[in-house]
Amino acid sequence: MLGGYDSVKGFAVIATDGSVGHVSWGSYAPGESYLVITEGLLRRKHRVLPAAAVTSVSDGKVYVELSRSQLRELPVLTHPEAEVSDKTHEQTMNAVARAYAEASLPR
């Protein structure tokens, strides 16, 4: 999924409707991979994104299948390298499941 890169730290994050921030941390453990996205300049927020939401990686950019508003529903960490608790992991998976469910609703 990393497109041949060892790490995507520092890569721009591109949602379905535009840029949302950059990757500030990542865990690449099989079965529990996630990225921490940092958004904002003055009021930085660090959000946990499961790696399964990544659609592609190229040219210093990580493309995800969620919109910017859906990404803002992901849990916030106090620091990009903070430990992701089981509760945070569960909240992350629930937020992504809601986003996928909304996307499949007829409009």
List keywords for this structure.
alpha+beta, Photosynthetic Reaction Center, Chain H, domain 2, 7 strands, single chain, seven-stranded mixed sheet, 2 helices, 107 residues
User: Number of domains in the coordinates?
Assistant: 1
Using the coordinates above, name the CATH class.
Answer: Alpha Beta
Reading side by side through the largest sheet, how are the strands ordered? 5-6-1-2-3-4-7
Question: How far apart lie the N and C ends?
Answer: 31 Å
Q: Under CATH, the topology is which?
A: Photosynthetic Reaction Center, Chain H, domain 2
Beta fraction: 25-35%
CATH superfamily label: Photosynthetic Reaction Center, subunit H, domain 2
User: What's the overall geometry?
Assistant: globular
Please outline the major beta sheet.
Answer: 7 strands, mixed
Describe what you observe in this structure:
The mean pLDDT is 84. The protein is 21% helix and 35% strand. It has a seven-stranded mixed beta sheet with strand order 5-6-1-2-3-4-7. The protein has a single domain, classed as Photosynthetic Reaction Center, Chain H, domain 2 (Alpha-Beta Complex). The relative contact order is 0.19. It has two helices and seven strands. With 107 residues, the chain is α+β, with helices and mostly antiparallel strands.
Give me a quick take on this structure:
The protein is 21% helix and 35% strand. The protein is an alpha+beta fold.
Per-chain topology:
Elements: E1 12-15, E2 18-27, E3 34-39, E4 45-50, E5 54-58, E6 61-64, H1 68-71, E7 76-77, H2 86-104
Parallel strand pairs: 1-6
Antiparallel strand pairs: 1-2, 2-3, 3-4, 4-7, 5-6
